[in-house]
Inverse folding.
């Protein structure tokens, strides 16, 4: 189908992951998107490799045909997924340390939660009299630093 149309054909999951991949700015976000793309890709790895030959040939004295291209590619993806999970673990630990420091210093925090494109930024602007980024765009994220500037322009006093 892709050859006939001359365009990339994607399902809903791939479209969403592609949007996130284009907009992921943080290291953690990029890792999460890469992991999600691999998790989505792994079960699909069948059609392109059906006629694939083995990478190691069986011969006299060997025990079989060897590892196929599909098996090898799946193994590499699983290894990369394992490495990404380990990196995400490190990011989580780092975030946990920062959270503990904020709690210790009594820095006020809050969360605005809602569906995509539901007016969270507009509400933030009204509540804080700030100028947070507002755009009628799906999957548009507010960055923590931006919110800190809007809400806490001066350092929080220590007690």
């Amino acid at each position: 189908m892709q050859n006939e149309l001359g365009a990339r054909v994607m399902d809903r999951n791939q479209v969403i992951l592609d949007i996130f991949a284009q907009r992921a700015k943080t290291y953690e976000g990029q890792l999460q998107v890469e992991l999600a793309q691999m998790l989505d890709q792994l079960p699909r790895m069948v059609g392109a490799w059906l006629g694939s030959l083995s990478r190691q040939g069986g011969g006299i004295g060997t025990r079989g045909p060897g590892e196929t291209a599909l098996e090898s590619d799946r193994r590499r993806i699983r290894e990369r997924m394992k490495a990404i999970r380990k990196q995400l673990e490190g990011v989580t630990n780092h975030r946990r340390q920062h959270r503990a420091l904020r709690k210790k210093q009594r820095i006020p925090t809050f969360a605005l939660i809602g569906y995509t494109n539901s007016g969270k930024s507009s509400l933030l602007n009204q509540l804080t009299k700030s100028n947070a980024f507002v755009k009628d765009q799906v999957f548009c994220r507010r960055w923590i630093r931006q919110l800190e500037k809007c809400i806490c322009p001066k350092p929080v006093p220590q007690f």
Observations:
- The chain has six helices and no strands.
- The mean pLDDT is 78.
